[in-house]
Amino acid sequence: MDHDELLERGRAAFAAGDFNLALAHANSLVQGGSNSPEALVLLVNAATRTGALEAAMAGLERLLARFPENVQFRRMYSTALNNRGARRRDEPDAARQDYEHALALWPQNTQAAYNLGRSEHAAGRMEAGLRALRQAHASAPDDEGIAAALSDCELDAARQLAENGDVSAARAAYAHAAARGGRGTRAPSLRACIGERLALPGVPDSLEELVRRRQEYAEGLERLVDEFHSARLEACAPGLNQLVWSNFLLAYQGGDDRALQDRYGDWVCGAANLLGGGALPPAVRPSGRRVGFLSSFFRRSTVGAYFSNWIGALTRAGFETVVFQLGPLHDDGTAAMAAQARNMVRLDGALEDSARVVRDAGLDLLIFPELGMDARVFALAALRLAPVQAMAWGHPVTSGLPTVDAYLGCAAMEPPGADADYREHFLGLPGLGTAYALPAEPTAATREQLGLPAGRLYLVPQAAFKIHPDNDAVYAAIAAGDPTATLVFFDNERPGMTRRLRARLERALSAAGAAPERQLMVLPLCGRERYLAINRACDLMLDTLHWSGGNTTLDALAVGLPVLTVPGRFMRGRQSAAMLARLGLTESLVVEDAAALASRAIALAGDPAECARLRATIAERRKTLSSGDEALQALVAAVEGLLARN
User: Which of 236, 378, 423, 425 is the most exposed place for a label (fewest CB within 10 A)?
Assistant: First the structure.
């Protein structure tokens, strides 16, 4: 069959709707050596109709090779590249290359610009994401999906600027996003307005900057409340996503947050009731005692490790327990926690839908293990979803919300007069407040295998945002006083924070006459087994001032590493001290101030016999840290009391 006859049969099959036959004829033509435009066009059209994307792209490549300036072919190939990129969900780098190639061929390919922008945003490349999404928005200014994606990227880019320390640029970026959205008129531009007023640095450059930014925060909060009064809020687009904001970083500044949290809590509760999608349907009360837990951390996380046993304790005590896991993250820990409850509900839709699901569950009591870490949960907690609502110390600072009635805390970690630190009614639990499962011993590893140097290793395993500038003098004094010292830190998930912290620490060590290039080590993030092995290989863990270790201290003690601490003014700086008291090691490892922390650290690290004695004592007594029967019994009694109040 000659070329023309085969081409005619292919065209007839295509016209009759038999696209598979048309594709077969087109393939025969091309494989037979035909490079005619007619055969290639037939191949592209038939392959497109049958979903044979690679075949269509091969045909388009050959057409473009012959007609490189043909606008129609360039657009068709650009569209095909975008479609292939969208299919490469598990190959983000390859998908990005397809989107970039698509835009190079046809810059007006709105869908490719949108997909590229979302891909770059998801990868944390905010500037590239913004460029692409702004390109898409310029092409399709009325597309709500593109506008929403651009808003999300703008907000995350602003947040990243703040976390990396450029608060002024972050507030300007928030202000730009707020203005583009009509300052609340279109969602989520109200959230941008909040960021414009309340953004804080993830790692302050100095104590002076911390004080200045805190004052700016207080002033910004008043401006926010004044601008968005009830009448003004009624003009804002409805939606709880407008209020997805958390004052997470405020708590790491070492100050008294009670008044600021109360002020923000009153405002956000009023805003949530106005913007939360209207009145929630009446709850249907159950016949029994129904207790819910709501979090996004019911998985392998610090919150999960602390509070999963609460679920089982209440279930065994006869409560009808319901766990609400706010997605999208879940893992095998989620399944284990679900097994301890009577029911688990995944919440993956809009926040208004999640609020209705929780409200319709007819709970008698709703417990939030943390308020402040996941801003979506904070927005939900600003609504009244159950007759009684309580929080725990997953983020140990008052929520400031009038909708949260009780704070279930750890009495041993609190200072005298702790009631005044919480807007919620404080209920202290004994011991560590929970039954904590200590990790298994890691596989033995030498310092050389772990990439650690010789000399004395002082471990500081906290996230960069926990390391208050007041700690810098402690590290400098240790490095200057112990020439063999290496201060061991870990990298942060956000590299900008690590860079900023490292620069601050290098200045402090240099000013003290130490050698930061030799005495400062920042290790990459690693798996849990290696992390525990690094703990065991160090000489001492230095607790951070103002915000002590929690899970990090328990991990260190689990492998026998001595932890040296100074009790802070608030619970968040007293967790390690309570753990050490439970081990009977207050006299050895709890000191009164920062100066004593440095001098005691040098003396202890330089006394191998004393370190060995402490390690032996910790190993002998550490099981007391996981004995939580008394705490769980007290939890049951506290819940009974809360329900009796209803």
Answer: 425
DSSP 596: H
Annotate 417-486 with DSSP letters as a single string.
TGGGG-SSEEEEESTTSS---PPPPPPP--HHHHT--SSEEEEE-S-GGG--TTHHHHHHHHHHH-TTEE
Q: Are 437 and 420 in contact (CB under 8 A)?
A: no
CATH topology of domain 290-436+630-645: Rossmann fold (3.40.50)
Tell me the per-residue pLDDT of 365-405, one tens digit each, with 9 for 90 and over.
999 999 999 999 999 999 999 999 999 999 999 999 999 99
Mean pLDDT of 2-26: 81
> Has residue 34 got a pLDDT over 80?
no
What string of H, E and C letters represents the secondary structure of 171-200?
A: HHHHHHHHHHCCCCCCCCHHHHHHHHHHCC
Regarding the domain with residue range 3-147, which homologous superfamily does it belong to in the CATH classification?
Answer: Tetratricopeptide repeat domain (1.25.40.10)
Q: Using alpha carbons, list the distances in angstroms from residue 200 to 4, 253, 265, 465.
A: 71, 10, 18, 11
pLDDT at 61: 85
Contact 271, 263 (CB under 8 A): no
Question: What's the maximum distance between 2 C-alpha atoms anywhere in the chain?
Answer: 97
pLDDT of 53: 79
141 Cβ contact list (under 8 Å, min separation 6): 147
* Per-residue model confidence as pLDDT tens digits over 228-253: 999 999 999 999 999 999 999 999 99
Please check whether the domain covering 447-626 is classified as CATH 3.40.50.880. no
Q: Give residue 599's pLDDT.
A: 97
All CATH 3.40.50.11380 domain ranges of the chain, comma separated, are 290-436+630-645
d(CA 561, CA 553): 9
Span(s) in the chain for CATH 1.25.40.10: 3-147
In the chain, % of residues over pLDDT 90: 79
272: which DSSP letter? H
For residue 1, what pLDDT band results from cuts at 50, 70 and 90?
A: low
Closest CA to 466 of 366, 373, 399, 330: 373
The residue assigned the tokens 């140097």 is 453
Task: Give the contacts of 473 (CB within 8 A, at least 6 positions apart).
Answer: 508, 594, 598
Q: Which residue has the tokens 């995944």?
A: 346
Residues of the chain within CATH 3.40.50.2000 domain(s) are: 447-626
Return the closest-CA partner of residue 364 out of 326, 322, 317.
322
Do 322 and 292 contact (CB within 8 A), yes or no? yes
In this prediction, residues 444-451 reach a mean pLDDT of 95
The structure's pTM equals 0.89
Query: Which tokens is 453 given?
Result: 């140097």
Give the pLDDT band (50/70/90) at residue 494. confident
Q: Note the pLDDT of residue 398.
A: 98
Cβ-based neighbours of 443, under 8 Å, separated by 6 or more: 529, 533
Tokens of 639: 């819940």
